Each structure stands twice: as C-alpha cells, then as structure tokens.
Amino acid sequence: MTSPRSDVGPTCSMVSRETGKAVRTRSRGLELIFWEIMDRHIPMHALPEEIRKMSPEEKVCKYCGVSYLILHEFKAMEEKVKVMEKEMKFYQGSIDREKRLQEKLRSLSQDFEQYRIDSESKTERIQDVSMQLKSQQYEFQRVQKELDHLQHELKIKQRQSQVFNQRLVEYRYFWNKTLSLLTFTKRELTSIKNEVYDNFQNWTSLKGEVFLQIKSISETALTEIEILKKSLIVSQRNKICLEEEMKNLKLLSDAAMLRSQQIQTSKQQEVNLQTRCHDLQKEVLDLQCQVEALGLNLQKAVTKIDNYKAKLMNKSNEADDCQRELRKLKFESIISESRHTRLLKEKEDSLMACQQIHKTLQEELTAKERQEEDIKRRINLAENELQITKTLLTQTKEEVVTLKNERELMLISHQKSIEQLQETLRQKLLNDDNWREKIEAELAKERARHLVEFEEQALLFKEEARLELDIEKEKHQEIIQKYKKEQEELQTKISDLIASATRDLRLEVTTLEEKLRESYIRYTEDSESKEKEIENLKNVVAEFESRLKKEIDSNDSVSEDLRKEMQQKSDELERVMLAQTQLIQQFNQSQEQNTFLQETVRRECEERFELTEALSRAREQLLELRKLSGSSPLSPCSLNQGSLTSSAAVVSNQGERSLTRLNSGKGIKIPSLHGVAKPTASPTLAQSQRLSSSGLPTVPQPHPPRGRASSVNETRQRLAAILRRRLSQQ
C-alpha cells in the first residue's frame, strides 16, 4: 500500500498552479475556481481509515500550508454545499408559506374574535333578559310581601307608641336618679383630687427638706476637706524646711571636702595615692556594708510595701463594698421612687380612665338626650295631634255643657212658668173649682210636650256625638283609604314596571326596601339598645359606686402607706448620707496614705538606683587607678580628673532631676530650692577642679531622700560618718 504523500504529489502541484492562477486573477470569483478544480480532479476511490485518522498537521504541507487531501476535502465541501442549497430552497419556500399562513392565521383570528364577541354579546343579552325576568318576579313578590308587612308594622307601631310612652316616663325617672348619682360621684372625685394634691404637696415639701439636709451635709464635708487641705499645706511647708536643712548639710559637706583637699595637696602624690587607695578600699568596704544594710532596709521596705499594698487592697475592697452598698441603696431608693411614681401614675391613669368613662357617659347621655329629644319631638307631634283631638273633645264637651245649661235654663223657665200657672190656677181654683180638670189636662200635655222636646234634644246630642265619631272614623278611614289607594297605585305601578322593566324603578324599589329594613332594624335595635343601655347604666352605676368606695378605701390606705414610707425613706436617706460622708472620709484617707506610700517607695527606689550607679562608677575609677598606679604615677591623675568630675556632675544632675520630678509630680512650686541649687554647683565645680589638680578621685554623694523624718536623720548620720572617716584618715 502506497503512502498518501506519493499518491497525492501531482495533485499538490496542480493545486499550487491553480492557486497561483487564483491569486493572479483575483477578479474572478472563488466559485469558478472551485468548480474548475472539481471538474478536472474528482476522486474515484474513498480514502482509507488510516489516512482519515491522521492528524491535520501530517495532512498539510509544511511549506505552502495546503493539505495533501484537498480534493477529498473539496468533494466533502461540494456535498455540504449541495445540502445547504437544498436547505436554502426549502427555506425560501418556507418563508412564502409562513407569510401565507400568517395571513390566514390573522384572518382566522379576526373571524374568531368577531364570533367570540358575538357569542359573548348574545350570552350577555340572554343572561340580562333572564335576570330581568327573575328580578321582576322577585320584585313583584317582594312588593306584595312588603305591603303585608307594612300593614302589620302599622299595627305594631301603634301598639309600640303606647309602650314607648310608658317607657319614657320610666326613663325620665331613671335619668333623674343617674344624674343625681353622677353629681355625687363628681363631688367625690373632686374630694379625691384634693387629697391627692395635698399628698403631692407633702411629697414636694419632704423632697425640699431632704435636699436641704444633703446640702448641709455636703457643706460640712467641704469644710472638712478645706481643713485637710490646710493640714497638707502645713506638711508641705515642713517638707520645704527639711529640704533647706538638707541643702545646708550639703554645703557643709562641700566645705569639709574643700578643707580636706587643701590639706591633702601638701603631701606627695604617691603617698596620697596609696593612702587614698587604702581609703577608697575601706570606703568601698563601708559602702558595701552600707549597700547590704540598704538591701536589708529595701527588703524591709518591700515587705512593708507589700503589707501596705495588701492593706490598700483590703481598703479598696472595703471602699468598693461601700460603693456597692451605696449603689444598692441608691438603686433601692430609685426603685421605691419609681414604684411610688408608678402608683401615682396608675392612680392618675385610673382617674383619667374614670374621667374618660365619665366623658363617655356624658356623651352617651347627650346622645340619649338627643334621641330623647327626637322621641320627644315625635311625641310632641303625637301630643299635638292628641291636643287637637282633645280640643275638639273639649269643644264638644263645652257645647254639651252649654246645651245642658240651656236645658237647665229651659227647665227653670218652665218651672217658673209652671209655678206661675199654678198660682194662676190656684187663683182660678179659688175662683172656680171646675177648672181643675182642665188645668191637669193642660199640665199633662205640657209635660208630655216637654218630655218630647227633651228626648229630641238628647237624640240630637247623640246624633252629634255619633257624627263626630263618624267624622273621626272617616278621617282614619281616609288614611286607610289612602293606603289602599296607594296600594292600588303601587299595584298599577307594579304592573307598569313589569311591563316597562326599567332599571330606575328597580333601584327605587331596592332603596325603599333597604330604607324600610333599615328603619325597622333601627327601630328594633334602638328599642333593644335602649333596654340594654338602661340595664348597663344600672350596672355601671352600681359598679361605679362600688369602685368609688373601694378607691376611697384604697386611697386612704395608700396615702397612709406613702406617708409611712416617706418617713422611712427620709430616715434611710439620713443614714445613707452619714454613711456616705464616713466612706468618703475613709476613701480620702486611704488615697492620701496610698499617695504617701507611693512617694516613699519611689524616693527609696531613686536613692537605691543613684547609690548603685555611684558605687559602680567608684569601682570603675578605683580599677582604673589601680591599673594606672603600676604604670605611671602622674598620668592617671590627668586621665581620671575628667571621669571623676563627670561622675560627680552626673550625680548632681540626677539629684536635681529627681528634685524637679518630685516638685512637678506634686504640683508644688518651691522658689527657694532653685535659688539654693545654683550656689551648690559652684563648690562642686571648685572641688572637682581642686581634685583634678591634686589627682584624687571624688566619690559622688548619694541623693538625700525626701520621705519621712527617719530617712532624713539616717542621711545626716551617714554624711557625718563619711566626713569623720576622711578626716581621721588624713
């Protein structure tokens, strides 16, 4: 089997030529070149799998970059192009189809929407017609029921009006009672307010007394603090005096050193050096002893400091405990005050609630009064109607009375006429006895006539009363006929409404139904609510009476408890203030002791540090002198002068710095110290110059302590011992 490169060698050359032509003729299209190549060279056999599986780097020429299998690639590309052309044709046809289908869809959607709208409108019409029919049927039934109901309600309202008249009388009686009770409750509330105000004034007066006591205690504490400050000033003055004495001792020591230096200059340098070496050795031993003693003293001081620290810790703990107790007492007092304020606020809230309830009751009363006024108006209208009827009745009664009076007058006149006739008859009887029968007959006739007239008048009165009653009945019948006519008109209207089926009449009927229902419901609710309100008012009045009694008792007990608690709190405050002043004094004393101990410890530490530095420098100077004494007797003097003087100057500078630190730490200005420090520098310089001339080393003096009197005495004793030793050695 041949390799692909040997088989495809001529193809590569042809492709290179054709590509050259394509480069030369750029104006031609790539499609022509492609089809020329495909027409000339068409692969007849398929490539083996080994060649297909080869990497693209092996298939491509390294120099020109053209693949050896370009014909097969062109064939594959041709197939792909054909497939793409088919797809393009299909897609070109599909675009037209899509446009047609979209147009059809649009037309169909429009038709569908039209059909849907038509169907919806038809269904809505059908539903509206069905609803209208149902509503008309329901309305017809409702109107019939309402008419029956209204007739029934008229009868009920007539009965209820009588019941309400009776209830109004009862309500008035109850309202009068409630008003009297409310006035009584107002008086009691005002009395309670006055008592609370008196309690509050007592509380404010007690507060003022407590604040005055606190101010007096604070003034006493301030006076004690001023006394302590004065004692501090006196102690500071004593301290300044002691410092001046120390400076005088320094001057004496400097003068003694000058004298010793003048005596030592007369001797020879070698003898002086030897003697000084021995002296220095002895002094070193003495200083070592002193250092050991100072170490023991320091240990004692450290133990004392530890003891003082323990005491300070104990006192600080005691002070913390006292502060905690004070805080607890303050907290308890605050809690009690808050509790009392809460109680007062609760009482005020209860009073406010009572006032609000009172206001609500007043508002309810006003509302009830308004309702009563409305009812009264209605009753007045009914009463006016009744008065009109009564006036009519009174008029009829007056007419009856006048008729009765007329009848009586007629009877009296008839009786008089009868008496006259009787007298005439008597006279005639006296004259003629035969006329008796005639007179009796005439009397009987007249009596019959009078009886007939009387009966006629009675009948007339009865007829008039019947007529009046008939008139009233006719009035009521007119009202009934009006209702009947209205009923007939409503029936006619209902028939017209059923015929017309308009929405306006529906709305009117519904509004009328709602109003009638609301009026009936309101009427029933008002009647029920009035009954309930009367019962509730009775219960509320009873509850208020019980609450007022309870609150009066509770206020009395609470006021007594508050007075007792105020007395207890005032006593506790006095005790707490006394304890506070004692604790403040103890705390100030402990602070003063603490500051004093800290100053003493600091001074001792500074003295120890200065002494150790001076000893180290003295040892170094002695070692240098020993080294130089063996080699040359004169050179060490000139060499050691600067070092000794520098050590002395350093010690003196350290002493001055310690003084300035102490003065700055205490905040006390001492002008006398600055004036004394300047002349002390001159003798030290002179001493250093003389020592440099003599060649003798100078031992720096330790800085004097500034603590208690014992430390001052010790420093004096040490300085005196050093001076005696030097004088004895010289």
TrEMBL record:
Residues 681-696 have a biased composition (Polar residues). Residues 662-715 are annotated as: Disordered. Residues 74-160, 263-438, 462-579 form a coiled coil. The keyword Hydrolase does not apply. It comes from the Eukaryota. Keywords: Coiled coil. The keyword Coiled coil applies. Transmembrane segments: none annotated. Signal peptide: none annotated. This is Leucine-, glutamate- and lysine-rich protein 1. The gene is LEKR1.
